Amino acid sequence: MRLLPVAIAALIGSSFVSVPAIADTDQLVANICDYVKSDDKNRLRKKMKESRVKLRNVYSSISCDGSSLLRTAYKSNAGNVGEFIAKRMPSSDLAAPEADGKAILDWASANGYDASEITTAIKDRLGGGAGSDD
Length: 134
Prior knowledge:
Helix content is about 65%, strand content about 0%. It contains eight helices and no strands. The model is unreliable at about 15-20 (pLDDT under 50).
Protein backbone atom coordinates (compact mmCIF):
# COMPACT_ATOMS: atom_id res chain seq x y z
CA MET A 1 0.00 0.00 0.00
CA ARG A 2 2.91 2.38 0.61
CA LEU A 3 4.17 1.89 -2.94
CA LEU A 4 1.26 3.74 -4.54
CA PRO A 5 1.74 7.04 -2.65
CA VAL A 6 5.49 6.90 -3.30
CA ALA A 7 4.91 6.30 -7.02
CA ILE A 8 2.44 9.18 -7.22
CA ALA A 9 4.84 11.49 -5.38
CA ALA A 10 7.67 10.50 -7.74
CA LEU A 11 5.47 11.14 -10.78
CA ILE A 12 4.45 14.57 -9.51
CA GLY A 13 8.03 15.43 -8.64
CA SER A 14 9.37 14.39 -12.03
CA SER A 15 6.72 16.41 -13.88
CA PHE A 16 7.92 19.58 -12.16
CA VAL A 17 11.52 18.82 -13.06
CA SER A 18 10.95 18.05 -16.74
CA VAL A 19 8.94 21.18 -17.62
CA PRO A 20 11.80 23.63 -16.96
CA ALA A 21 14.20 21.35 -18.81
CA ILE A 22 12.05 21.58 -21.94
CA ALA A 23 11.77 25.35 -21.58
CA ASP A 24 15.55 25.59 -21.11
CA THR A 25 16.12 23.50 -24.24
CA ASP A 26 13.81 25.71 -26.29
CA GLN A 27 15.62 28.80 -25.03
CA LEU A 28 19.01 27.25 -25.79
CA VAL A 29 17.96 26.48 -29.37
CA ALA A 30 16.57 30.01 -29.79
CA ASN A 31 19.82 31.51 -28.50
CA ILE A 32 21.95 29.32 -30.75
CA CYS A 33 19.87 30.31 -33.78
CA ASP A 34 20.12 34.01 -32.87
CA TYR A 35 23.90 33.80 -32.49
CA VAL A 36 24.24 32.04 -35.84
CA LYS A 37 22.04 34.61 -37.59
CA SER A 38 23.98 37.51 -36.06
CA ASP A 39 27.39 35.89 -36.82
CA ASP A 40 28.37 36.04 -33.14
CA LYS A 41 30.89 33.22 -32.78
CA ASN A 42 32.05 34.24 -29.31
CA ARG A 43 28.58 34.22 -27.78
CA LEU A 44 27.78 30.92 -29.52
CA ARG A 45 30.93 29.33 -28.08
CA LYS A 46 30.15 30.73 -24.63
CA LYS A 47 26.54 29.49 -24.70
CA MET A 48 27.59 26.01 -25.82
CA LYS A 49 30.23 25.85 -23.09
CA GLU A 50 27.85 27.12 -20.37
CA SER A 51 25.25 24.57 -21.41
CA ARG A 52 27.83 21.79 -21.62
CA VAL A 53 26.64 20.92 -25.09
CA LYS A 54 28.85 19.84 -27.97
CA LEU A 55 27.86 21.10 -31.38
CA ARG A 56 28.53 17.74 -33.02
CA ASN A 57 26.02 16.09 -30.65
CA VAL A 58 23.13 18.51 -31.26
CA TYR A 59 23.68 19.78 -34.82
CA SER A 60 21.21 17.43 -36.48
CA SER A 61 18.48 18.14 -33.93
CA ILE A 62 18.62 21.95 -34.19
CA SER A 63 16.58 23.71 -36.83
CA CYS A 64 16.44 27.48 -37.28
CA ASP A 65 13.33 28.45 -39.23
CA GLY A 66 13.35 25.02 -40.87
CA SER A 67 17.02 25.12 -41.89
CA SER A 68 20.12 23.51 -40.43
CA LEU A 69 22.66 25.67 -38.62
CA LEU A 70 25.01 25.74 -41.61
CA ARG A 71 22.24 26.68 -44.02
CA THR A 72 21.15 29.40 -41.60
CA ALA A 73 24.74 30.68 -41.52
CA TYR A 74 24.84 30.76 -45.32
CA LYS A 75 21.52 32.60 -45.58
CA SER A 76 22.55 35.12 -42.89
CA ASN A 77 25.98 35.71 -44.44
CA ALA A 78 27.48 34.56 -41.13
CA GLY A 79 30.90 33.47 -42.32
CA ASN A 80 32.64 33.39 -38.94
CA VAL A 81 29.99 31.22 -37.31
CA GLY A 82 29.67 29.04 -40.41
CA GLU A 83 33.40 28.33 -40.42
CA PHE A 84 33.28 27.62 -36.68
CA ILE A 85 30.44 25.13 -37.14
CA ALA A 86 32.13 23.46 -40.12
CA LYS A 87 35.35 22.99 -38.15
CA ARG A 88 33.52 21.43 -35.21
CA MET A 89 31.50 18.92 -37.22
CA PRO A 90 32.66 15.43 -38.11
CA SER A 91 33.29 15.11 -41.84
CA SER A 92 30.77 12.26 -42.01
CA ASP A 93 28.02 14.63 -40.82
CA LEU A 94 29.06 17.30 -43.32
CA ALA A 95 28.89 14.79 -46.17
CA ALA A 96 25.57 13.30 -45.06
CA PRO A 97 22.31 14.43 -46.68
CA GLU A 98 20.16 16.78 -44.64
CA ALA A 99 16.37 16.75 -44.26
CA ASP A 100 15.73 17.54 -47.94
CA GLY A 101 18.13 14.83 -49.14
CA LYS A 102 20.91 17.20 -50.22
CA ALA A 103 24.34 17.34 -48.60
CA ILE A 104 25.39 20.80 -47.46
CA LEU A 105 27.90 21.31 -50.31
CA ASP A 106 25.32 20.28 -52.92
CA TRP A 107 22.81 22.69 -51.41
CA ALA A 108 25.38 25.50 -51.23
CA SER A 109 26.34 24.99 -54.87
CA ALA A 110 22.72 24.95 -55.99
CA ASN A 111 22.06 28.20 -54.12
CA GLY A 112 25.10 30.16 -55.31
CA TYR A 113 27.30 29.88 -52.23
CA ASP A 114 30.31 28.29 -53.98
CA ALA A 115 32.60 31.25 -53.20
CA SER A 116 31.65 31.47 -49.51
CA GLU A 117 34.25 31.04 -46.78
CA ILE A 118 31.87 28.52 -45.23
CA THR A 119 32.08 26.39 -48.37
CA THR A 120 35.87 26.60 -48.24
CA ALA A 121 35.88 25.50 -44.59
CA ILE A 122 33.58 22.56 -45.37
CA LYS A 123 35.72 21.47 -48.30
CA ASP A 124 38.84 21.68 -46.13
CA ARG A 125 37.13 19.58 -43.48
CA LEU A 126 36.10 17.00 -46.06
CA GLY A 127 39.63 16.87 -47.39
CA GLY A 128 38.80 18.33 -50.78
CA GLY A 129 39.77 21.92 -50.10
CA ALA A 130 41.66 23.79 -52.74
CA GLY A 131 44.39 26.21 -51.82
CA SER A 132 44.77 25.55 -48.10
CA ASP A 133 48.26 26.82 -47.32
CA ASP A 134 48.97 25.66 -43.79
